[in-house]
Amino acid sequence: MASLFNPPVASFSPIRPSLNPSKMASNFNLNHTLLRRSITSNDNTDIIGDTKLFSSSLSMATGGSSDGGDKTSRKLPVLLFDIMDTLVRDPFYDDVPAFFRMPMEELLELKHPTVWIEFEKGLIDEAELEKRFFKDERAIDFQGLKNCMISGYSYLEGVEELLIALKEKNYEMHAFTNYPIWYEMIEEKLKISKYLSWTFCSCKNGKRKPDPEFYLEALRHLKVEPASCIFIDDRKKNVEAAKEVGIIGLHFRSADLLLQDLCLLGLDISPDRSCLKSPST
């Protein structure tokens, strides 16, 4: 999730797949050097992390195993998704300043410097957030603020279609997000749990990205090797933190480019499905 104090720069576009996943399936057998070469030759791809191409662990990603054994084994890789500004629009940058009738610069100057982080980590409740939202503890329309956030939550363009395609291929997906208990408001509106589990939220785990222990805790919970996980986030520093513990990292810029990145890693996604075609096709 993008930090509330460092607005991201991102562009989003419909999915227009240009890669054939049936050909990409063989990428699981490529070495890391060849993957890097294919990535650097594609201006639309920015895959961060030492993939090692998942070796034998990700050979199960199409339902099989490296030794020709049990084909009912857990399907890998496991996908870990940041939520805000990766799957869901973050209302903070445009809607909240408008709600308070002040420019972003003024809002950041008047806002308490740590209260949101404390709320994200589950250290304080809504009553404390309301009281300390501003440094001078001025009264605010707290329910109005929550309604503003709810109104602003929406899937980023093309993202839900990609989640549907991944779900239909039985990929295991989890949220891995810095967000407070208000993730329940996102769930109520968008029903993200149709596609992934709200497994790793800072308010429940008491940790925030890019703390390495947050990533390691996720690996222990999932009982998988780091190279059997793909982490997607719009913030590069969070992707780089995943890389440090051995998780495959993808920098999110749009649903279109994420589809291409996943195809390059050999994931079984069919781009000829109508739900993955752009409106013009």
TrEMBL record:
Highest rank taxon of the organism: Eukaryota
Pfam family, one: Hydrolase
Protein name: Uncharacterized protein
Species assigned in the record: Citrullus colocynthis
